[in-house]
Specification:
It is globular and about 90 Å long. Helix 1 runs parallel beside helix 3, helix 2 runs antiparallel to helix 3 and helix 3 runs parallel beside helix 4. The protein has five helices and seven strands. The strands form two sheets. It has a five-stranded mixed beta sheet, with helices on one face. The protein has a two-stranded antiparallel ribbon with strand order 1-3. It is of the alpha+beta class. The chain has one domain: Heat Shock Protein 90, CATH 3.30.565.10. The longest helix is centred in the N-terminal third of the chain and has 70 residues.
Length: 235
Amino acid sequence: MGKLTLNFFMILMWSLIYFSYYYVARSNKERLDKARLESLVKDLELKTIKAHINPHFIFNALNSIRYLIDENPVQARTAVTKLSILLRSSLRAEDISTTPLENELEIVQSYLDLEKLRFEERLHISMNIQEDTRNMQVPPMMLQTLVENAIKHGISKQIEGGDVKIISAVENDKLVLKVQNSGRFLHWSKEHEGFGINGTKNRLALMYGDKANFTIKEYGNNNFVEAEVKIPIQE
């Protein structure tokens, strides 16, 4: 009886060890598979957001050129050249998750040069870029999207045009980017938010979680709108 009890005890111990090992191994595999799946989903979501940026941007740029074709063919050809530069930049952006702010500012400048051809004296541009922010990493095409949004929903809605201001600074160990424009901010419900706003919110959430922040509001005498992004500093 004692030998049977000992054998039963040994079998029970080995069974417990085996099933414990099997459970731990399976649990670890499930956690690993879940982490891989979450990473894949995040990557696909980011690629989807990026894929939406370029067609949206191209449409607006082509729309700008359309205005110039009959009015000023020489300027239209210049605009096509600038657009080709922007397209090359946007294609490169598809393969990277972040880019130095300096590179993003060059893309923004090309875009603004293109829009300046259409708006002429109606568009006033200024930049206040803190020097030590130029090498900091930002999501590619994000700043350009906010500038595009400012012109589309702000400047283009006003007969007299207006100002677009781009600001970068460091505050509380975060990179702060601001795009300010003349105009009014409509307090859209969530389903009426434009792609520029939704895309920015989604990209920041996917890339930085709760470490990033995005706000858009009227400020001053309510004749200006400010979009502000705060992200962790990465150099």
